[in-house]
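Good morning,

Both structures are done.
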Amino acid sequence: MLVRGRNEDASGLVRALGLAWLGINQTRAPCRSRSKRHPFSAPRSTVEVTVCTAPGAQVALAAVDEGILRLTGHAAPDPARWFTAKRRLGLDSRDDYGRLILPAEGEAGILRQGGDEDEAGAGLPALPFVIASLFESPRAADADGVARFRFEVPDVNTALRLSAVAWEPARTGAAALSVPVRDRLVAEPALPRFLAPGDKARIWIFLHNVELLAGYRARLSRR
């Protein structure tokens, strides 16, 4: 960074920023990682995930709802690709020179945005739903290069993306796997939209056989 003081041609301080590229040695082999998990998982259960990597490597694991990740276009983390990828130059400078250099004419505008709120400030009603977003802190793999994690899966019917990141002092690695999470049998009641006092209604219940064998019978009992 170059700072030029006052002179005859300029009324205030002037500064300029420069940069230089740093080369990264990409010849080292990455820390290979892969995760093992059964292709099916049940909600409201404990799931054990095994990550195979280099012995002694640090491993972190996340399990996030696949639908949320696709809505935001979030890709599975890959440290090696992030640090060595070619990207557009981004530069940010933070200092106190703004206190020394006279500001330009005009004032900074204030952004105003709104919507979804009335005059009283009440927002839209909150809809009850569960988003699966789980994370396990880093832990070291054993002598066989195996790191084991346990998750408490919430009450969801979706797919969880398991994203594992492993690293050593000189290597990094990552692996991702999508695991369906659903009940073996799903009961969906068709409830009336409204009822008045004294009304009687017939409720239909639809049963979706997801993982059970064919030939089961269902019986409805009232308690």
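Second structure follows.
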Amino acid sequence: MNEIINKRVEFRDLGLIDYHQAWEYQESLFAETVEIKIRNRNLPVQEQSPTPNYLLFLEHPHVYTLGKSGKQENLLLDEAGLNEKNAAFYKINRGGDITYHGPGQLVGYPILDLDNFFTDIHKYLRFLEEAVILTLAEYGIEAGRITGLTGVWLDANKQENPRKICALGVKSSRWVTMHGFAFNINSDLNYFSNIIPCGIDDKAVTSLQKELGEEISLEDVKEKMKKHLSTLFEMELI
């Protein structure tokens, strides 16, 4: 546990950015934070440095990513198919199976030292989901969770037509997080037909645009998400 608690979180909007470039950027911030934690362990309290926290918002060009527990057969495209769709593919170091990122989707990467907040990865995931659920409520959409599945779903209770609107996949080491959530706002949902999303083949995927029947301001969604994340985590966004 940190002796110095830092609830300030630096917000950075990276715009549309290549997946690999964003991944390397995440890794550099993550490594920097872990290095500070390791160094602090060998220092008296008065000489320790607070660990930084970051919240990155961005969009990616078309890309499919496969988590550590995923199966490559859940990608239904070969290399030629990926080229035809102008999409990239990466195997990465987060949890979860396969997912899609693309323009019109709000991707959030919190790089937090959970020692500054709470050391409970399940609570962390639930708070990410809750921020999305609260944001959707502001658009008049009721969303929730399905037992045993991560992410945020519509028709989560009756499950007559359950459909996923936000996927989660995170990595945590020494209580420092990376990767995060992918919230479908104005996403081209056709790209999801080229995968078995998160390895789940019996449930649909949706977007805020599809549910409301009109294009949604991504900037408005960002502001709502920032507000709810700040409140839930009791963080000070700077």
